[in-house]
Design goal:
Number of domains: 1
Strand order of the largest sheet: 1-2
Distance between the termini: 75 Å
Shape: globular
Helix content: 25-40%
Radius of gyration: 23 Å
Largest sheet: 2 strands, antiparallel
Number of strands: 8
CATH architecture: Orthogonal Bundle
Bound molecules: protoporphyrin IX containing FE, 2-acetamido-2-deoxy-beta-D-glucopyranose
Structural class: mainly alpha
């Protein structure tokens, strides 16, 4: 080959490399970096409208986020080391073998969202493992101040039932929870980061007599409710830092008929406190990370995004999956108000537990003592 033709070839190569990568055409004029991502635009449209009630951050979103964890945490290196099946992690087994896994004690209540999601996964012919993580990532993007999670597609639809006793219980002590999480690949700090999910969480099974939120409502939300006069059930929850404040307040009451197993006293009428959240907030190994989120919403979100990449791929090889994150909506830009002490509380009510850093001097919300409005029955 002459010098000239080598030069010409090189020029062509440079020109080709400079072309924008070819994008696959998907429905409604959208494009994707990989044709395998197109189906997820259709799933997105469908679940935002028909599962999440027009892209709300409501109960089905909360349950979908919880389900990402309950599927993925079914994974144990310890069991594998003992020659037993350790579970497949984020493999959709909780949906494929719902009749087994949703009967595990720690999965109480999860059957509802599994059965609500299943028809969508079947309709769009996507694997159960992919669907569960996609629904969680899409759902939480609807929450004000929420994260934009990565979404990788391509998990196999073939799975085996997870062994029982791998999902942490709210009545478990921190030693037990931390070693279980470690066994699935998550450090103590990772576990605190994952619990940012409880900023948009409610319970209705630990105390079945009263559905109640685990997080409070910032002053801003309470103002919005009274301003708009809207009933509480149409008020979306926010991915804000209030949860990390309120879990550190001294408990004074049971919101329902407590004390139930896994429940401890909460500081506010209508708010429910899990024993596990109470203990992780105060354990010297986790307390400083916990407290740090009170004044750093940005860190809370970015650390959650980061740890969720790993949760969503427990038991999977992420390099063998296709990155379809572009399908996940960008959460609306909102400026959340700073975390406050609920009205009626002072810094004296705080059980600060981080030895290294003093509790931040956050303001108290004005007005009469707050109570957290009830969650409507579903
Ligand atoms: C580390 C140990 C954890 C324990 C002991 C725990 C325990 C619980 C319990 C008991 C409930 C209430 C269920 C009910 O009665 O309806 C709950 C709700 C929830 N959990 Fe966790 N959880 C943990 C970690 C996680 C993680 C890692 C995630 C997600 C990444 C998560 C997401 C949620 C969500 C979103 C809800 C609210 C569900 C709803 O409102 O319907 N949890 N959790
Ligand atoms: C590890 O697995 C073995 C075998 O099932 C079990 O006896 C042991 O309690 C497990 N250890 C932990 C820390 O879970
Ligand atoms: C996934 O497996 C379930 C059975 O567990 C089956 O009903 C469904 O059609 C499968 N979906 C795909 C995409 O293969
Ligand atoms: C559904 O997905 C499975 C597995 O990916 C594939 O074998 C099957 O042909 C698909 N069915 C339809 C109707 O597209
Ligand atoms: C609360 O009520 C439920 C039934 O709704 C019952 O199973 C539970 O034992 C009660 N708990 C307490 C502490 O009374």
């Amino acid at each position: 080959m002459s010098f000239k033709s080598i030069f010409a070839l090189a020029a062509v190569a440079v020109a080709v490399a400079a072309l924008p990568p070819r994008r696959a055409a998907c429905s409604n004029g959208r494009t994707a970096s990989d044709a395998a991502c197109c189906v997820w635009f259709d799933v997105l449209d469908d679940i935002q409208e028909n599962l999440f009630d027009d892209a709300e951050c409501g109960e089905d979103v909360h349950e979908s986020l919880r389900l990402t964890f309950h599927d993925a945490i079914g994974f144990s290196r310890n069991l594998t080391n003992h020659g037993q099946f350790g579970g497949g992690g984020a493999d959709g087994s909780i949906m494929a073998f719902a009749q087994i896994e949703t009967n595990f004690h720690a999965n109480v209540g999860v059957d509802e969202i599994v059965e609500a999601q299943r028809p969508f996964a079947l309709k769009h012919n996507v694997s159960f493992g992919d669907f569960i993580q996609f629904a969680g990532a899409t759902g939480v993007s609807n929450c004000a101040g929420g994260p934009r999670l990565q979404f990788l597609a391509g998990r196999s639809n073939i799975s085996q039932p997870s062994p029982d006793l791998l999902v942490p219980e709210p009545s478990d002590g921190t030693d037990k929870i931390f070693s279980r999480m470690e066994d699935a690949g998550f450090s103590i700090i990772d576990t605190v980061n994952l619990l940012a999910s409880h900023t948009v969480a409610a319970q209705d099974k630990v105390d079945a007599s009263i559905p109640a939120r685990l997080h409070g409502l910032s002053f801003w939300v309470l103002l919005t409710i009274s301003y708009q006069g809207t009933p509480f059930d149409s008020t979306p929850s926010m991915f804000d830092s209030q949860f990390f404040v309120e879990t550190l307040l001294q408990g004074t009451l049971f919101p329902g008929n407590g004390s139930n197993v896994g429940e401890v006293e909460s500081p506010l009428h209508g708010e429910f406190r899990l024993q596990s959240d109470f203990e992780i907030a105060r354990d010297p190994r986790s307390a400083c990370e916990w407290q740090s989120f009170i004044t750093d919403h940005q860190a809370m979100v970015s650390k959650f995004e980061s740890v969720m990449q790993r949760l969503a791929t427990v038991g999977q090889n992420p390099r063998a999956l296709t990155d379809c994150s572009e399908v996940i909506p960008v959460p609306k830009a909102v400026r959340l108000p700073a975390a406050t002490l609920p009205a009626g509380k002072t810094l004296k009510d705080v059980q600060a537990a981080c030895a290294a850093t003093p509790f931040p001097r956050i303001k108290a919300a004005p007005g009469p003592t707050t109570s957290v409005a009830a969650v409507p029955p579903s």
